[in-house]
Amino acid sequence: MITYSINNLSDCISKKNPSSIVVLTDDKTARFCLPLIEELIIPGIIHINVPSGENSKSLTTLEQICTQMLENNADRNSLLINLGGGMISDLGGFCAATYKRGISFINIPTTLLAMVDASVGGKTGVNIGRFKNQVGLFADPESVLIDPVFLKTLPPRELISGYAEMIKYGLIFDSEFLKELMSGHPLTKEDWLPVIQRCIELKEEIVAKDPKEQGLRKVLNFGHTIGHAIESYSLENERNPLLHGEAVALGMMAELYLSCKKTGLDMNAAVKITDQIRAVYQHLQFPVVDNEVLLHFMKMDKKNTDGEIGFALLDEIGHAVYNISCSEEEIREALDFCKPATVQYSDYQLLKIISRPETLSGKIQLPSSKSISNRVLVIEALCGTKFEILNLSEADDTVLMQALQYATGSEIYVKNAGTVARFLLAFYASRPCDVILKGDHRMSIRPIGELVNALKAIGADIEYLEKETFLPVHIHGRHLRGGAVSVPANISSQFISALLMIAPTLENGLSLEITGEIVSEPYINLTLKTMSHFGINYAEHDHLISVPPQKYIPRPIVIESDWSSASYFWALAALFPGSELHFDNLWDDSWQGDSILKEIIKEFCIDYTFENGTCRIKSWVFEMDYFEYDFINCPDLIPTFVCLCCALKIPFKMKGTRTLQYKESNRAEVLKTELAKLGYNIGLDENEITFDGIQNLNFVSKSPKGYITLNPDDDHRMVMSFMLLAIKNPDIYIQNSGCVNKSFPAFWTEIEKLGFAVQNEKRSFSLKHDSFQIPDIAK
Fold first, then answer.
1. Residue 537 has what pLDDT?
2. CA 396, CA 591: separation in Å to the nearest integer?
């Protein structure tokens, strides 16, 4: 029996008249949900709590629950109430079905996923090690009490996770229901009950026809064969593992591709749905894992027969078929379809700002510093021991960097992440392994030669696979002797940082001489401060840094907010005099070099204060005739100030720009080319950028429809800098606006919170195996 209010709980209990009542919770539901039902239960319940998370769904936890029930004299007439999400429903149901050969139980699902899936249909079970749902049975609860009131206790990520199962129902059963779901975002939905009821109706209909999953019920597994493999890998290997619904969302995208290959689903329809799923799950990053690892998990799937990996797939949107076998090569193609290397969905998103407020006020939630986060992750791997990391960055680069601790394949793909590529290069070279390190097209023209030369000088075995001094490279990793080495510092400080972090682990330590002009020196200092936090001693004399062999000491660390990301909002405040903004976890005594922002921007009449971990800024009306600054130590701030000065028509000379050509794009060229479309004549010299303060409207480059499209060349910092110009001109579209995920996934959300209206337009797609192009509306 399914009811839709927890107020029915007392009646359900009375009908059973149990000898005792056992309530099973996890840490979260004990805190947030148990108080909502305690007054509905007779006093003297037996409360059993297990740790939150999928790791509790095990035979070990099952034994612990049964032991506590025995110790509390629970008998065959006892009633077990499962209060929680999918893990509690599966684990508790299995416990009730097996304890004393079966006792009655009630499911009270508290997550969206459990309400529409796990608590309904009679499936129970536990995982065996890293393999999902390997032991279990079918057992129906006496009652399922579903009440959307519990959804108010959920964090947004949990709510979005459960939405994947709802999308699945639309895909396999009801295309009109799917359209309804996709017409909005789960975080904006207010009335959940009708869509929950529709999902349960669909599931009950199929379960009634096939209760033991001998045939038709298998269609409910759409997205789950690959999804379970991704989830199992993530649970075992990732610091912040995927939730079940998140893994299923990735699985559905991969299995949509298989549906096109195997059961005739239209590719255009598959691309459209995949795009819609991506729009809901913008925060998701496909795990950095070799396809063979995921295939290994799939081969252990409980649905397989005769050694073949079985799938439920779609032949059209709203209808599924089952018992479809796919070859390993077809599955590899489907996995590649999902990966950012093959399908770049958000990269081609067009965005413009259509309205703006008069002044700005509010709190900006900045991302954590990915520079510190990436260094801390390398050091954790070098420690060989995990430690507490608070406020770790969720940027794409940091998600990629976590792969260094867990990557199991022979090929490591770093996309266009220069920090990740250079840090991993040194890391892998200094320990026994055999790895090919490769990146995308842009990364393949970003130099690594000086770093490779230095590593070879201290014993590394690295060979170029294509072009000298660039990725890809084949690393034959081994313990390195260390010693003395010199490195020019005029290209990238990342070369120096990569060598410094492995230095304590080398047999003879490292004596590192830095030659030539040093660019981004604060980033070298950041590396040394981070190493010092973990107990590393070093000596500096002029341009010589000596690090003796020693061990890192695992210590907890709190990552501060990112000063580079703050620059866009400080610049916004300068464009809107009278603005007042505040930022948590932005520190005055920051380790980050870009914290110099607060001194540079004083000329633009920005006042700031730091108090109790919060930075507050206020902007004033100002006039400026000319701006000049040498950005050699903070080149990431250059695009911000170029666009700010152009927006205000302030002439400038910015020095220290030589390294811009080695960034995610050739930033100097991108600035010159794209700002010319707006009538700004940007001058480029070897090491400086200039502007005369004049915007020539006769040279504004508009499309026939009157639009101006700025192309950031897939560079996150260029997108965020172009925002400063787009707020001044509603005719400006910013292309590839989704690439802000590299460092600041919530960037556009924070912009909207300030009162700007942001409009997204159509996207284009590039698929490895098939092509489907949506026209760029700005052309």
1. 97
2. 22
Cβ neighbours of residue 90 closer than 8 Å, sequence gap 6 or more: 57, 118, 123, 124, 125, 126, 133, 136
CA gap 628, 378 in Å, rounded: 37
Question: For position 683, what pLDDT does the model report?
Answer: 96
Please count the residues of the chain: 779
Question: The tokens of 369 are what?
Answer: 């510093």
Spatial separation of the C-alpha atoms in residues 54 and 439, rounded to whole Å: 33
Structure letter (DSSP) for residue 366? P
Contact 37, 7 (CB under 8 A): no
User: What whole-number distance in Å separates Cα of residue 343 and Cα of residue 759?
Assistant: 23
The span from the CA of 500 to the CA of 520, in Å, is 15
The DSSP string of 79-137 is EEEEEESHHHHHHHHHHHHHGGG--EEEEEE-SHHIIIIITSSSEEEEEETTEEEEEEE
Q: Return d(Cα 288, Cα 277) in angstroms, integer.
A: 20
**Closest by CA position to 448, among listed 386, 384, 492:** 492
* Strand 104-109 relative to strand 79-84, pairing: parallel
Residue 21's H or E segment, with its range, is strand 21-26
Q: CA 505 to CA 548: how far, in whole Å?
A: 9
Helix locations, 210-309, DSSP H: 224-237, 244-262, 267-280, 291-299
Q: Which of 81, 79, 85 is CA-nearest to residue 102?
A: 79
Q: What is the pLDDT of residue 703?
A: 66
Distance CA 64, CA 59 (A): 9
Pull the structure tokens for residue 349: 């998103």
Looking at the annotation, which residues are catalytic?
Answer: 636
Q: What is the rounded CA–CA span in Å between residue 49 and residue 84? A: 11
Write out the two tokens for 483.
């010693």
CA distance 223 to 407: 24
Q: Residue 595 gets which letter from DSSP?
A: G
> Does residue 760 sit in helix, strand or coil?
strand
Q: Which residues of the chain have pLDDT under 70?
A: 42, 130, 237-239, 283, 288, 340-349, 403-409, 703-705, 761-779
Instruction: Categorise residue 498: left if φ over 0, alpha if ψ from -120 to 50, beta otherwise.
Output: alpha
Closest CA to 257 of 777, 775, 767, 779: 767
Question: Helices 449-457 and 493-502 sit at what angle, rounded to 10 degrees?
Answer: 30
CA pair distance 675, 700, nearest whole angstrom: 9
SS3 of residue 144 by DSSP: strand
The tokens 């199962």 sit on which residue?
Answer: 165
What does the DSSP 8-state code read for residue 305? B
* CA-closest candidate to residue 24, choices 54, 58, 55, 52: 52
DSSP letter string over 532-556? HHTT---EEETTEEEE-S-------
**In whole angstroms, what is the distance from residue 557 CA to residue 403 CA?**
20
CA pair distance 514, 487, nearest whole angstrom:
5
pLDDT of residue 530: 97
